[in-house]
Each structure stands twice: as structure tokens, then as C-alpha cells.
Write a structure and sequence with these properties.
CATH architecture of the largest domain in chain A: Roll
Order of helices and strands of chain A: HHHHEEEEEEEEEEEEEEEEEEHE
CATH topology of the largest domain in chain A: Nuclear Transport Factor 2, Chain: A
Shape of chain A: globular
CATH architecture of the largest domain in chain B: Sandwich
Helix content of chain A: 10-25%
Number of strands of chain B: 23
Radius of gyration of chain A: 27 Å
CATH class of the largest domain in chain A: Alpha Beta
Shape of chain B: rod-shaped
Strand order of the largest sheet of chain B: 8-14-13-10-11
Oligomer: heterodimer
Structural class of chain A: mainly beta
CATH topology of the largest domain in chain B: Immunoglobulin-like
Strand content of chain B: over 45%
Structural class of chain B: mainly beta
Distance between the termini of chain A: 82 Å
Number of helices of chain A: 5
Helix content of chain B: under 10%
Number of helices of chain B: 1
Number of strands of chain A: 19
Number of domains of chain B: 3
Largest interface: A-B, 38 and 37 residues
Largest sheet of chain B: 5 strands, mixed
CATH class of the largest domain in chain B: Mainly Beta
Radius of gyration of chain B: 37 Å
Chain lengths: 364, 282
Amino acid sequence: MGRLLTIIFAVLTIGLIAVGTIHGSSTAPASTPEGAVQSMFDNVKGHNWTGAYSYVAPSSNVSQENFIRDLAGRNGSLRTYSQLDSANTRVLHESDSEATVRTELKYATAVGASYDTRDLKVVKDDGAWKVQWPAEKEVNVPPQVIPVNYLRWDIVWRGTSDDWGAQNVENPNCRILSMNAVERDGSLIIMGEVENEDTVPAFITVGAVLSNNSGQDIAEESSFDKISHVLLPKEVSPYRIDFPGIKKTDVKSVRMTHNWMLVPASADPVIGVLHQRIEKDQTGRTVLRGELFNESGTVVNIPHVLATFYDNSGKVIWVSDAYSDHALQPQTPQPFTVSLRDDLAANVHTYRVTVNHYSLNENL
Amino acid sequence: MRKIIFVSLVIAVCWFAADCAHAAELNIPKDAVAGQPLTINGSGTLYLIGPGQVIKREFKSGSVEIKGEELRSAGRWIAAVHGDGNQSQVFWVKAGKPENLNFLARPSRVPVAKPNVISGVTFVFDKYQNMVVDPIPVNFNLSVGGSSNSKNVTSRDGIAWTNSNSAPKAGAAQFVASVGDTQVHRVVQQVASDPCNLRMHISGRTGNRIIVETDPIRDCSGNPVPDGTIVTFIQTDNTGKSTVDARIKKDTARAELPAADNGTITVAAGVVLGNELHVGGK
């Protein structure tokens, strides 16, 4: 009996070890197009780049290094500070040898979630489905000298040894040009524009305090990143302040708060916004598209696009923003897309796009 | 005769008594000035109690000299003597001659050619930061670009102030307040107003891009609009709208725009619109 138990336990142990050892390989050949895409992005999530690359069809003609750079980012862009969070796939078209899979990628980034929708072509290669990865064309700016008259503002502040009468340089004069409060999707949204009317750069913050019918303050928020915080002379920026969960009927009054500060700043780089147009994207949503063009000679690592939409009376009816996950190379156009609410698209008469920029080598 | 001797003795005793009393009395000059020496007559131990200061001295040979650097505070002082008899006396110390100015000039930046926008307030102090309340002539001088505007104002209770127009010429104006040899400088930046007659032209073409550039941008008084001011170029064509927020550099702003077959370019700075250009065309 004792010997029998020993044998049983030994067999059981060997069986459990075998079960624990044998598991689905992360690079197992995909039997479906959707499976190929899912497996590839599962490996990307785990930073198993070799595993992810094994799902790329050889006909893609993309090297593993370029494939990694496409997904992990390059040139200090926002993508380099992000992590793939999820990949939702849906087969749009499938035949025996090829298929198209719509993939909605969600990245967790330092500035919130970033979304990317791709229609990936999947082909059957040697009995297994593989993704035909559309390699991004890496732009190489030819060696050149780009002359820039580098303009910047430096400030001599009041020193500790100055007498008490010595005046400090005054903060800039800025003005909130407009304010419009609307209710969208259960949130109260306050938006408008602010201008630096002075001849020196300003660091601005705009906020709002909501009061209810009995005069009590019920909420306070600032525009956070829905604004250009550094405004050069005569520059206009939109702002948007969101109050989630607050209805317009609950609010009696809105008190705008602001802070204008004089800061050292640089007038470079100049970023052009080219070929702006409102159109539908591949999912049918209304978007504002265009190209960013960095006219300076330095790389802008993280461009941030702010779009202001006006109705036919010139009132700001929506402010939208988007971070580009690609760095802006000098003298090279880079596409961007900013979403626009479908229900507002018909009311948009005109729009204006401004660009914030963040550079790793910025010395200000 | 006896009567005469008696009267003479009474007078002599009174004289002696008065003289003794006078010897113990404090004798403080009425024109004490901060920073200047002061001699006080008396006997015993002298205590001087003033604003933020206490001085203790022993009378030697019936007097005490307080050095100028010891008597620093102007205002109300009390002199107290502890000796054969205790006594005290209040006296006032005036501020010395003006040697320090505190000058408040506002604002630090101002548009050109605006009336009464620059103000200067001066507080007059002596070497030891005592406010000089006597009327003192203070000169205010505002100069920019070779032209200057000077004004003399007499201080009242230690304060003199003035208002001034900003000059029609832009630049860093030197605002100087002076009393005698003492001068204090402040800088008031006088800046140009909004652009006037904003005009642009096509200045070149590189590949499939055109370069648009403004003429030198000046305000209506002819002052160059400060560098860094945003000038927006907008091109509208059949591919959409292209905008460049260019910065004024060395009086002009310049932008690169895509070359269009048939486009319209407009330019604006702040609320000022410039000319319009049509490019391409078939």
C-alpha cells in the first residue's frame, strides 16, 4: 500500500511539473489574423521585441531596429515616455491569404492616455498569419546650417542688496478676451481665449471658481494643459477648464482667476501649421488634420497642438488638444490630428491652431 | 550800616544758592542734529534715551560730549541725570543733511506718448536713515534717446513726488532723482504701441515653399515694434489653411508657407490687420 502511494505521488508530482512547464509559447504561430495582431502587441506590452518581431511578415521589409523604434518611439518623443496599455482588434476584412485588422492602441503616457488607430494588413505566410508592418519612413534631415537669430528675453530681477525703493520689473499685462460656459456630457466646460498684451513674455495660468445659488464656492479648477502657458508678446492662447459632474443649472456665477508672471523665454522655435482641414477619420469621427512644420534647426521632442473652434459670430465653441507622439525634426512636416466633437462640427465656422513645444535640450 | 550788611549777606547767600542750583541743572543745546557732536553740561551720571538707542555717560568737569556717530537717531530723546539730585529733560534731535534717497518709480514698462503715466516718489533721508522732514529741493530727470525732461520739486514732510508723460521715443528711459550729490537711477522701459501699416511681400521661394516677409514693423510714432512680437501669417488655398505665428526679429517677421496654386495670404499682429496677397493662380 505504501509503495503504491509513493508511486501515485511520484506520478502526480511529475504530472504537475509537466503541466506547469508546458504553456502556450508567446511566439507560437498565429492561426488567425486577429490572433497575429494580438500576439504581436502582447509581446510589445511585455517589451519582448524579438517575440513581437516574429509576427511581422518578412515582406514588410522592416528591420527589427526600425520596428522597435516605430513602437517604442524615437528622438525623445512622447512615445518614448509611454507604455502600451491595450490593443483592441477587429477584423475588417478577411480572405484566405490576407486580412485587414483595425487595431485601437491605447498608450499610457506622462500626459494621459494616448490613442492610435491603425488598419493593419495581415498576410498568411508559410501557413501562419503575420502582420505586414507599415514601416515609418525615418526622416533624415540632410546636413546643413540653419541660421537662426536666436531671440530670447532675460530678466534682471531685484537683488537682495537693492534698496527697498528699487522697483522690480513688473508682471506683464494680459487679458482674458472671452469666456464661454457650456455643458457637455455631464461636465461644465469653461473656455475662451487669453492674450498677452505686453511686450514681454508671460507665464499665464487661468482658472475658474464656481459658486452656487447661495453664493458658496462649489468647485475650483484650472486649465492645466488646455492652454499655452508661455505667451510671447501679442500671442493669443485658448483655454479650457473642465468641471466634471457639475451641471450648469447648479452654478449661479463663475469667477475667473488668473496669474500672469514675467518669465525668461525664447522666441524659437517657430512651428508652422500647414494644410489644416476638418474631415472624417477612418472611424467616422470628425477631426482637424494638418501638418506641423518646424522652421527652426532643433528637434522639438513633444509637440502639443491646441485647436480653437469658433462659430459664425466669432465665439469660441470648443477647444481641443492633442499631443503628437512623434518628435518634430527640423524642416520636416509631421501630420497631426485633433478631435472635434461631431455635434459641433456643423457649427464650426473657423478655427485656429497653436502649438506648444517641449524640448529636452531646452535651456530655459 | 548793620542793615546794609544784612542785606548784602542775604544777597550773597541767595547768589551762592542760585549758583549751586545752576551747577546741577542739565544744559542741553536746542539745535541737536543727528550725526553731529553734542555737548551736555551737568554732574553725575547721564542717561540719554532715544529712538532705538540708549547712551550712558559720566559727567567729567561738568560736561559730556556725545560723538556724532553715537547720536544716530532723530526724534524725541530724554536726558536723565542721576547724581546729587535726579532730574530729566526732553529734547529733540533733528535729521542731518540729506544723504540717502529712496526712489519709487512706476511703472517699469510703459507705452510711448502717454500722458502722466510715469510717477516718481522720493523719500529723503540723512546718513543714518532719518527722514529729513525739512523742505528739500529734489530734482527729477527723465531722459531717453538724447531728450530729457527735468523737474524740481520741494519735498514736503520728507517726501517729493512727480508725474511725467512717457516720451514719444521708445527705449529704456533713465529716471533719476537727485538731491545735491546724491542720485538714484531707475529704468523705465518705454515700449512701442501696436503696429501701424503692417505690410508684407513675397521675399523668396525655396523648393515648394514660399517665404513671406513683412516690411519693417513700426508703431504709428515710427518706433520699431519690439522683437518677439507675434505676427500671424495665414494662407488659405484648396488644401486647407496654413498658419505661422512668426516672431518679429530685427523689425521684420518672416515665415515659410507651402507654395499654393491659388492661395490668399493675410497677415496680422494682435488686433492689427495687414495687406493681403494672392499667390499662384492659373
